[in-house]
Design brief:
Layout lengths: L1 E10 L2 E11 L4 E6 L5 H6 L9 E6 L2 E2 L5 H8 L2 E4 L11 H11 L4 H14 L15 H13 L5 E5 L7 H18 L2 E5 L3 H7 L2 E6 L2 E7 L12 H9 L6
Parallel strand pairs: 3-8, 3-9, 6-7, 7-8
Antiparallel strand pairs: 1-2, 1-4, 4-5, 9-10
This protein binds adenosine-5'-triphosphate (ATP).
Length: 247
């Protein structure tokens, strides 16, 4: 689905990505993990050419994005959705209009836009929130709107840049479930950049560990399942008392 060959990216004298090659199979949930500054976001942003490599190739669905004209690149990007740590919703637009923007930009037929928006909101469980504004939503709900927006144009790949890093453990699980569902039901290939090992372990089928802009190791992985953390006060107290010596 995605094949990257010998990518290099420098910022001035600094090499952010050095000689990275990897192959992401169709239908995978592919994790990229590494320390802060390892180059994870830079690598992800090169998968839709938000960041242009200095050299190397980026094939998505058998098309080398680095060779496309801007017009063809815009077309290719319709099949590559993206979500971000801080959601990037438009504050003065309703949930419905935030999702509809993606359809407008993709010149989706006007008459079918509303029903497509509703379908996507239903999929992420937010059909009742269509007329709310982003400020009225929780972090998990905002991320689900962003997922609905990314899904609207039927992408074959979803790039996720630290999708749960602003969320608490409970909403992290909700968002991971939605991502896993998208992967299973629609066969969308998912690439997740995260510094949270628990996130990577829970759903990823393949993982690349990045270190200082280079691949340290790539492994196939058996997803261990999404943990649902307790949210009751009794659970918090129980966890706090665990390991505490009796007075
Ligand atoms: N536009 C830029 N100009 C200059 N340096 C940059 C730019 N973007 C990224 N870098 C540098 O490239 C390196 C890799 O950045 P990147 O954001 O890809 O790392 P990361 O692994 O995603 O880190 P984090 O987990 O902290 O987000 C960092 O040292 C960063 O400072």
């Amino acid at each position: 689905m995605i094949a990257i060959h010998q990518l290099h990216k420098r910022y001035g004298e600094f090499s952010a990505i050095q000689d990275v090659s990897l192959s992401i199979p169709s239908g995978a949930i592919y994790g990229i993990i590494g320390a802060s500054g390892a180059g994870k976001s830079t690598l992800l942003r090169m998968m839709n050419l938000l960041e242009r490599p200095d050299s190397g190739t980026v094939y998505v669905a058998d098309q080398d994005l680095t060779q496309l004209s801007s017009r063809d690149l815009r077309k290719a990007r319709k099949s590559i959705g993206m979500i971000f740590q801080h959601f990037h919703l438009v504050a003065n637009k309703t949930v419905r209009d935030n999702v509809r923007v993606a359809l407008e930009l993709a010149s989706y037929p006007k008459a079918q836009q509303l029903s497509r928006v509703e379908e996507c909101l239903r999929f992420v469980g937010l059909e009742d929130m269509a007329l709310k504004y982003p400020a009225e939503l929780s972090g998990g709900q905002k991320q689900r709107v962003a997922i609905a927006r990314a899904l609207a144009t039927n992408p074959s790949v979803l790039l996720c840049d630290e999708p749960t890093s602003s969320l608490d453990p409970q909403t992290t699980s909700e968002v991971l479930r939605v991502l896993q569902d998208i992967n299973e039901r629609f066969g969308i290939t998912i690439v997740i950049v995260s510094h949270e090992m628990a996130v990577i372990k829970s759903i990823c089928t393949h993982v690349t560990v990045l270190e200082q802009g280079r691949i340290y190791e790539t492994l196939t992985h058996t997803p261990q399942g999404i943990q649902s953390p307790g949210t009751s006060s009794a659970y918090f107290v129980e966890q706090l008392k665990e390991g505490t010596a009796d007075a």
